[in-house]
Write a sequence for this structure.
């Protein structure tokens, strides 16, 4: 598992520090910034970086893998956070842990308190590799709408090459936000918004918020009118597996402006770990609920993808819709996968996937 | 609840087909039609119409926006020039019975672009600000002027971020240099193969030697370039067409996945030889027989085959979008995103327009390399580009999937104000849509298998064929 946090020797700072680590000296053509921390020495256990004159010691055995990483060090803590890993396509900034929904499969259950890190995130974006895609997630990022919109505007003006993938529950938009959206470059933002069923009562029950579906529908229309590129996300649960075909009908009729529909398998962490036995749907045994939804959505021209599905759990005819969706830092393979010839094109499993309570049909192909 | 206007068409004794302007459709009864017309919708009618996206409550509500977005997807918005047909030479090394547009003998003089024309073509391409371009080389036989093809391709690869090239060749004489040209990843081959060897020789190659040469070259093309970048189109005579199973077997044997059935287009030399087209019904019957044979073939075949225009029609019905075929889009803008440059430097809105003009029937050119595009003529064409306000189309159940074809109307009737339902374009498309819906509502699993493969999805969904009682 790739480490997202590394131990550092505490440094005397009063403000959170955002720097870009450089383990190899950039050539003359590479621009450097005041926020570049160059490695000055290393041994097998540590690497020392020069941060504008003082020394930052990072405990790592793989210093080379840190080159180009944008990292955050918080005052008084002995930890460094790898905010943007230069070698990865899976970088996400956690905007807040607060949320107004309590989805039964939430992988990041809400917390009460919020620390505003937008200034640090803006700095991180400025240092990110060229044309990187950066995820913005939560909690619900738009609980801090004014600050988030300001962050997006400033980020886009400083780094027009950066693309954002925002995960939002779509509960916090107003018609008056349309102007703000239109002032953004909407073409470089992908909006990931969950919808669990076409039946409002089922959706509301899953997100544990009365009236959520009605607000969601209204706000999806609002996003569409503002030119948002939409990714509708549906986690498969026992609570909605029989509803997916009807959801496909609803999406292709009323939300056909969506760019893509992602049907997602469950991640066994957070609330989902608690509700796993009740809600995990063994689609390796019975795939038809998904198949009928995919059949209808694709025939009506809605791009449809399967996230977090190991290839051997999916019938052959639907494998082309699977994507490498599990982030590198939380992806694993099982011992069964050692001999599988599809391994390199398979998304694998979440680090915390429980083998004894998971898919019944896992077979090397 | 407000219901979007529904168009309808009687299908049989019991059933009508209904569609709204955004293309959502369903089958229902005369009883429902009566309730709809008399504004007496039942609870279950309302629930059904809501669920199908046929209704909304308030302007701007989610159902309204959903409908609007689907409607928008069916509109072919005018886009910058992205598809150019070039005719570098009119000379040809074959003399087919129904040559699409007059041709010149292989040795004739004055039927090729000269240096000035080539420079003008490149200058025209250079003026485009788009990132993508598709070039189709037509003729005559374009491979007779490989040097001009090379010049255009080299220029486009440098000028545009993405460029693709289609060479429409008879594959009669292919030099080693020509093979190397055709083998490039960004280059596609489109050839004619009239369904069976016998027919192809009768209509095109004539002699056994020439035919053998074509056969060997078609095999070589599939071998060297691969079936993904080679397509073959049959041109058939409706009054004496080949047995569908023979054509399908011949295409299957070569590994083709797509057949675009075309009947002889009575233009060019062909119109003089065959006279006016009186074979509408013959062709409709044959087309249906052919598709039924395809469905039987696909029932057991490992690699299924489509009839291109039917697949295209089904995609337009079910998905909207798919504005890439100039015979079927709405509005059908002429002289905007698509342009033909003839061997003599004249510009045309479509290849059909070039043919009609060449036989001297009516001049449908829209300018020349020397004088540039004639904006006035283009505006005239585009006054009648859409079926939105065509009095014969507004109540048609197939309106959301269809479009006008002005060039076809002009070529057949010399005018554009013939009532639409009397035009060949309308009649043949009514037949086609009737057939497509018949297939969509079929209960035959073999039909379902074919539809799924034509739509490139895993399985046919019965939800596509909505019914309401």
């Amino acid at each position: 598992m790739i480490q997202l946090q590394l131990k550092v020797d505490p440094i005397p700072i009063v403000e959170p520090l955002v720097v870009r680590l450089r383990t190899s000296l950039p050539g003359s053509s590479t621009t450097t910034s005041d926020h570049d921390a160059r490695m000055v020495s290393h041994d097998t256990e540590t690497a020392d970086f020069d941060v504008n004159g003082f020394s930052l010691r990072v405990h790592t055995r793989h210093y080379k893998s840190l080159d180009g990483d944008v990292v955050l060090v918080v005052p008084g803590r002995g930890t460094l956070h790898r905010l943007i890993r230069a070698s990865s396509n899976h970088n996400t900034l956690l905007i807040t842990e607060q949320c107004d929904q309590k989805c039964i499969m939430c992988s990041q259950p809400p917390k009460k308190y919020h620390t505003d890190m937008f200034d640090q995130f803006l700095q991180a974006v400025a240092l990110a590799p060229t044309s990187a895609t950066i995820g913005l997630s939560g909690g619900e990022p738009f609980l801090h709408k004014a600050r988030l919109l300001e962050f997006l505007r400033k980020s886009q003006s400083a780094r027009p090459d950066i693309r954002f993938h925002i995960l939002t529950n779509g509960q916090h938009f107003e018609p008056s936000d349309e102007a703000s959206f239109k002032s953004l470059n909407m073409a470089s933002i992908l909006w990931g918004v969950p919808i669990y069923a076409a039946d409002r009562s089922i959706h509301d029950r899953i997100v544990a918020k009365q009236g959520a579906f009605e607000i969601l529908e209204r706000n999806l229309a609002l996003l569409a009118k503002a030119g948002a590129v939409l990714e509708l996300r549906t986690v498969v649960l026992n609570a909605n597996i029989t509803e997916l075909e009807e959801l496909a009908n609803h999406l292709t009729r009323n939300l056909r402006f969506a760019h893509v529909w992602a049907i997602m398998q469950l991640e066994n962490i957070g609330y989902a770990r608690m509700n796993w036995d009740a809600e995990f749907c063994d689609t390796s045994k019975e795939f038809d609920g998904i198949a009928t939804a995919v059949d209808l959505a694709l025939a009506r021209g809605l791009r449809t993808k399967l996230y977090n599905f190991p290839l051997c759990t999916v019938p052959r005819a639907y494998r082309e819709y699977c994507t490498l969706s599990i982030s590198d830092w939380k992806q694993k393979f099982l011992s069964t996968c050692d001999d599988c010839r599809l391994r390199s094109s398979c998304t694998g499993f979440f680090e915390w996937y429980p083998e004894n309570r998971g898919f019944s049909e896992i077979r090397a192909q | 609840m407000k219901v979007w206007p529904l168009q309808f068409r009687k299908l049989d004794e019991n059933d009508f087909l209904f569609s709204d302007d955004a293309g959502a459709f369903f089958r229902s009864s005369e009883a429902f039609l009566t309730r709809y017309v008399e504004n007496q919708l039942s609870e279950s009618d309302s629930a059904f119409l809501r669920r199908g996206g046929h209704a909304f409550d308030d302007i701007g509500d989610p159902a309204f926006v959903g409908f609007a977005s689907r409607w928008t997807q069916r509109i072919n918005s005018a886009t910058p020039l992205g598809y150019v047909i070039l005719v570098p030479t009119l000379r040809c090394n074959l003399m087919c019975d129904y040559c699409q547009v007059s041709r010149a003998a292989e040795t004739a003089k004055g039927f090729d672009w000269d240096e000035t024309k080539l420079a003008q073509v490149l200058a025209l391409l250079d003026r485009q600000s788009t990132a993508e371009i598709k070039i189709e080389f037509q003729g005559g036989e374009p491979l007779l002027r490989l040097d001009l093809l090379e010049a255009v391709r080299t220029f486009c690869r440098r000028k545009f971020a993405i460029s693709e090239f289609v060479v429409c060749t008879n594959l009669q004489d292919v030099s080693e240099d020509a093979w190397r040209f055709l083998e490039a990843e960004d280059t596609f081959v489109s050839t004619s193969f009239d369904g069976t060897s016998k027919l192809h020789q009768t209509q095109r190659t004539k002699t056994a030697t020439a035919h053998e040469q074509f056969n060997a070259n078609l095999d070589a093309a599939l071998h060297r370039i691969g079936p993904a970048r080679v397509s073959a189109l049959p041109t058939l005579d409706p009054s004496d067409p080949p047995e569908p199973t023979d054509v399908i077997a011949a295409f299957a044997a070569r590994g083709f996945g797509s057949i675009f059935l075309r009947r002889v287009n009575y233009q060019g030399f062909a119109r003089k030889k065959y006279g006016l087209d009186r074979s509408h019904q013959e062709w409709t019957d044959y087309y249906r027989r052919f598709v039924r044979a395809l469905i039987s073939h696909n029932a057991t075949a490992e690699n299924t085959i489509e009839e291109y225009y039917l697949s295209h029609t089904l995609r337009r019905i079910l998905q909207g979008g798919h504005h890439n075929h100039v015979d079927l889009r709405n509005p059908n803008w002429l002289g905007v995103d698509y342009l033909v440059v003839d061997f003599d430097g004249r510009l045309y809105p479509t290849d059909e327009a070039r043919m009609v003009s060449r036989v001297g029937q009516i001049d449908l050119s829209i300018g020349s390399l020397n004088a540039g595009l004639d904006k006035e003529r283009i505006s005239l064409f585009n006054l009648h580009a859409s079926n939105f306000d065509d009095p014969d189309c507004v109540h048609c159940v197939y309106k959301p999937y269809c479009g006008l074809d002005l060039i076809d109307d002009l070529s057949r009737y010399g005018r554009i104000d013939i009532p639409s339902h009397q035009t060949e374009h309308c009649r043949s498309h009514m037949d086609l849509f009737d057939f497509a819906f018949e297939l969509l509502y079929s209960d035959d699993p073999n039909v379902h298998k074919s539809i799924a493969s034509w739509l490139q999805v895993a399985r046919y969904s019965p939800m596509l064929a909505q019914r309401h009682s």
User: Anything to note?
Assistant: Chain B has 17 helices and 18 strands. Chain B touches chain A through 28 residues (CB under 8 Å). The radius of gyration of chain B is 23 Å. The longest strand of chain B covers residues 162-168.
